[in-house]
Amino acid sequence: MALRIYLSGEIHSKWREEMIKGALEQHLPITFTSAVTDHEASDAAGDPLGKETKPYWRDHKSARVNSIRTKTLIEKSDLAIVRFGDKYKQWNAAFDAGYCAALGKPYITLHDESIIHPLKEVDAAAMAWAETTAQVLEILKYITKD
Predict the structure, then answer these.
(1) Do residues 102 and 122 lie in contact, with contact meaning Cβ atoms separated by under 8 Å?
(2) Residue-wise pLDDT tens for the chain (146 aa)?
(3) First to last CA, the chain
(4) Cβ atoms of residues 107 and 100 within 8 Å
(5) What is the reported pTM?
(6) Separation CA 54–CA 136 (nearest Å)
(7) 25 and 143 in contact (C-beta within 8 Å)?
(8) CA–CA–CA angle 1, 72, 3 (5° rounding)
(9) Residue 41 belongs to what domain range?
(10) What is the 3-state secondary structure (H, E, C) of the chain?
(11) Residue 86: phi, psi to the nearest 5?
């Protein structure tokens, strides 16, 4: 079974690369998509619509432009993997998880044990919680098996 998987969440580690490399090495029939992981490019997504003097309005426009990509890719995906790191608050990842839940789109959360409590509602709606990319790859291997 071929899958389209949306990778959401923190952008400060190599977890996306680990997922893609692991899937390729195991010959898993998966196509991955992702949010824009270039922080500056994401922050500037709304800039073509005109200069803003207040940071709120720049962020607001960029968030709306980014949401075109995010919503489209989540809706086209079969599954999402939502990664939460321990250094930064990933409100966008929590929003993506909530969007998946609202759509009835299955998702797997990926984070360490230290942030279980703040993510309890997000994890409760997930189909699985994993601490490592290796665990997620094992799940993907299982669910793509013919």
Answers:
(1) no
(2) 899 999 999 998 999 999 999 999 999 999 999 989 999 999 999 999 999 999 999 999 999 999 999 999 999 999 999 999 987 778 899 999 999 999 999 999 999 999 999 999 999 999 999 999 999 999 999 999 98
(3) 6
(4) yes
(5) 0.94
(6) 41
(7) no
(8) 10
(9) 3-143
(10) CCEEEEEEECCCCCHHHHHHHHHHHCCCCEEEEECCCCHHHHHCCCHHHCCCCCHHHHHHHHHHHHHHHHHHHHHHCCEEEEECCCCCCCHHHHHHHHHHHHHCCCEEEECCHHHCHHHHHHHHHCCEEECCHHHHHHHHHHHCCC
(11) -100, -10
Residue type, 37: T
- On whether the CB atoms of residues 30 and 2 are closer than 8 A, the answer is yes
Residue type, 73: L
Cα-based angle 79, 14, 46 (whole degrees, multiple of 5)? 70
If one counts the domains in the chain, the total is 1
Whether 46 contacts 61, CB under 8 Å: yes
Residue type at 41? A
Give me the CATH number covering residue 115: 3.40.50.450
